[in-house]
Design a protein that fits this description.
This protein has a two-stranded antiparallel ribbon with strand order 1-2. It is 58% helix and 7% strand. By secondary structure, the chain is mainly alpha-helical.
Length: 153
Amino acid sequence: MPAETAPGHHGLTPTVIRSLEMLHLSDLKRQVERILGWEPARYWQSSDFTQLSNKIFAYTYHYVSARDLQRFWQGPPAAVPHPPLLDTLAQFIDFRDWEDFCTHHTYGIIETGHGTIRPYPRVWEVPTRWVLILWSLSVLASILTAVLLVWFR
C-alpha cells in the first residue's frame, strides 16, 4: 500500500507496516458490515454493492462505485485501495477520514525472542450479546435470592 494510506507507521519494516495496514483494512470492512447488519460480505452480490454505494452516497455525499466496493471486499488482498475510497468508507462509519480511523485503531507492537515484531489488538471488545446474557443472569439470581430469603424467613 502506498505510504499515504498508512498513517502513523514510521520507522517500522515494510512487512510490519503491511501487516498493520491489513489489520486496519479488515477492521474497516468489519465495522461497515456491522453497521449494515447484512449477511457476511462473502455472500454479497452486485446488487448489494450497488445498495451499499447508494447508502454511502446518502450518508457522506461522496460517490463510490459499486465496482470499487466489490473489488475492495472481494478482490485480491494485495489490491491497493485508493485513498479516497478509504476516506469515504471511514466517513461512512463516522470517522473524519482514513487517517482518523487508523489513529483511533492503534495496535500494540511487541518483540518476540526472535526479534520479530507482531501487531495485536490493543483493546478487546465485549460482544453486546454477552453483556445482555450476564445482565439477565444477574437479574434472575437477584430474584431467586429474594424469593429464597422471603421463603425461609
